[in-house]
Amino acid sequence: MSSTADATKSVPPPPPPPPQPAHVPNSNLAHMNPLPPSVFTLPQTAQLEALYTIIRDKETSRGDFLFYSDRIIRLLVEEGLNHLPVVARTVETPTGATYNGVGFEGKICGVSILRAGEAMEAGLREVCRSVRIGKILIQRDEETTLPKLFYSKFPQDIAQRYVLLLDPMLATGGSAIKAVEVLMDHGVPEERIIFINLIAAPEGLTTFTKRFPSLKVITGWIDEGLNDKAYIIPGLGDFGERRQVSFFYFP
Ligand code: URA
């Protein structure tokens, strides 16, 4: 026998991989079935679920939490932009040919719900160069326990823009509803607001979509529900704390 054959014989083949539980795509959508027609989720792929698994893991470092939550935010922003209306636009290409394409119809701006929403601003700026961004701070009123507006700053022509409203965690829906009310008070019609969200609880999503049925919601994942402290379950804990968002920036 040749020495090559001997060597082959002496190396045992690697053991077969252990059986993996079957991945059930879209299983989380059963938490809200049927989905309200105004709600759009990211494609529920295994890759997306892997990204969510990393950011949900309490052992994930802050660096990884930032990196992987930013990846999901980028996907969400891109999906949000898919819902903006376009108009016909014809251009001439360098070959001298004419291309009948489309262009975005109107101006946009982002509005982040402080503090956690601020973490989504960079993702929006990455894809929309020099986009205007407004801010809104809503907190629970100590006396009434209702969400109360503490601060807002918007582009002065916000009523003429499409608004991408940014808040990563939709729990009870109280802050998001208040934020939309404030935007509508500034003249932005409900249909021109797109709410962009990382994780939604069915309770908050139901309340929000019943209140604003023609406002589109783009969410990455619908979780099981809320605990008695209004944290999303399984969730990822306190988003602001995980990212260590430690200051407000009031321009
Ligand atoms: N805000 C968070 O950061 N996490 C939750 O689970 C709910 C609201």
UniProtKB/TrEMBL annotation:
Stretches with biased composition (Pro residues): 11-22
Record-linked SUPFAM superfamilies: PRTase-like
Key words, A-Z: Allosteric enzyme, Glycosyltransferase, GTP-binding, Nucleotide-binding, Transferase
Residue ranges of the TM segments: none
Record-linked InterPro entries: PRTase-like, PRTase_dom
Region called Disordered, residue ranges: 1-30
Family matches, as Gene3D superfamilies: 3.40.50.2020
Domain of life: Eukaryota
Domain Phosphoribosyltransferase span(s) in chain numbering: 43-242
GO MF annotations in UniProt: GTP binding; uracil phosphoribosyltransferase activity
Gene Ontology biological process terms from the UniProt entry: pyrimidine-containing compound salvage
Pathway: Pyrimidine metabolism; UMP biosynthesis via salvage pathway; UMP from uracil: step 1/1
Cofactor(s) needed by this chain: Mg(2+)
Enzyme Commission number(s) from the entry: 2.4.2.9
Family in the record: Belongs to the UPRTase family.
Protein name: uracil phosphoribosyltransferase
Lineage, opening ranks: Eukaryota, Fungi, Dikarya, Basidiomycota, Agaricomycotina
